[in-house]
Write a structure and sequence with these properties.
Helix content is 27%, strand content 23%.
Length: 279
């Protein structure tokens, strides 16, 4: 198969449901055993490999994406999906089909789970050599601050991505003073991770001259996963060896959090939102 023009989000969702159903018992155990710290599960070979390879080929070039570069992070993102290939949007919204959401809700035992049509902080991401994402907590809410962010879905689509290449998801279940767990961003792998006030995670620097591409979604709920959670902005820290950066990022998070106390939706509108004609 060289292309997938006939596959809609409904078709793709059915493929996703079929694969998750095959792994349901295993991933349910994996999530259950990890949820007291940072709940997660992963599934390899989520879609037929030719479909995932096709999705990767449809990724926009970096000059058509938005560069987010600071001491917090260095990566390319794309969220205005109607500017890109149709298949990319169809795949993103396949993860938002009711059949997929309901199945993941069952796996994670979350009573209410809702996708985000606005792709707030979701969409496409790409990281090339030396790019990274420092340890952080995701923003606790959706863009209107009505719902709690509870799950992060990351689908990796770069063929032949080696473990030695870097660009991997790292979770810090025992805090940043202890060792992280590395979840490799292997081709055709879906990782689902819980997000709450202790879900510190990062992405290791890419160390090869290549790009690691990812399709991401967030799910929301009317209650937080952690009973200690409170509203917080995206909060960054330094890695254990980055002492000075850590202090700068602590101050940065403190200032941004206090601004949000004054301005509920921020001083400026977050541009990382998919705006359609309907909006």
């Amino acid at each position: 198969m060289n292309s997938i023009p006939s596959l809609s989000r409904t078709d793709l969702a059915q493929l996703i449901v079929n694969r998750i159903s095959q792994e349901k018992n295993r991933i349910k155990i994996q999530y259950e055993e990890s949820k007291n710290q940072i709940g997660y599960f992963f599934i390899d070979d989520l879609l037929p490999s030719e479909i995932t390879e096709h999705i990767n080929k449809q990724f926009p070039s970096h000059d058509k994406m938005v560069l987010k570069k600071s001491i917090r992070e260095d990566k390319y993102i794309a969220v205005q999906m109607n500017q890109y290939k149709r298949d990319l949007e169809e795949l993103i919204y396949a993860f938002q089909e009711e059949s997929v959401v309901d199945l993941i809700k069952e796996v994670c035992n979350i009573k209410i789970l809702e996708p985000d049509k606005n792709l707030y902080a979701g969409g496409l991401s790409s990281m090339k050599q030396s790019q990274f994402l420092n340890p952080h907590l995701d923003n606790s809410h959706d863009k209107e601050r009505d719902r709690w962010r509870v799950l992060n879905l990351l689908f990796y689509v770069t063929p032949n991505w080696k473990d030695s290449n870097g660009g991997h998801l790292e979770i810090w279940p025992n805090g940043l003073k202890h060792d992280q767990i590395t979840l490799h961003s292997r081709f055709n792998r879906l990782i689902v991770m819980a997000t709450h006030d202790k879900s510190w995670h990062s992405v290791s620097p890419v160390v090869v001259d290549a790009s690691r591409n990812c399709v991401s979604n967030y799910y929301f709920s009317n209650t937080a996963l952690s009973n200690t959670d409170k509203f917080h902005v995206t909060t960054f820290r330094g890695r254990p060896h980055q002492k000075i950066r850590n202090q700068i990022l602590k101050l940065d998070s403190f200032l941004r959090m206090n601004l949000r106390k004054l301005f509920k939706k921020g001083v400026v509108e977050n541009p990382h939102v998919y705006k359609t004609d309907k909006d």
